[in-house]
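Quick one: structure for this chain?
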Amino acid sequence: MSASEEQRAAWLDPGFWERLQRLEGRHQQAQAKHDSARRGLERLGPDELEELHRAWSRYCEVIAELDESSAEFEALMRR
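Got it. Here's what it folds into:
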């Protein structure tokens, strides 16, 4: 079966359309959550924004540290 035949077969598969519909629903829900979160951020006052910035900076530092230690752990395990 050629690649184009495989693609057509995937498009004709009822499971494909079910997965697509579920994905579209999840995407719409995520978009609605994003819009709500953005509106919430727009309502923050200056003091709240500063605290949010500090919390975000701490979070980014921790994530960077976690990524680094995870990479080192994975490298160690490959030896």
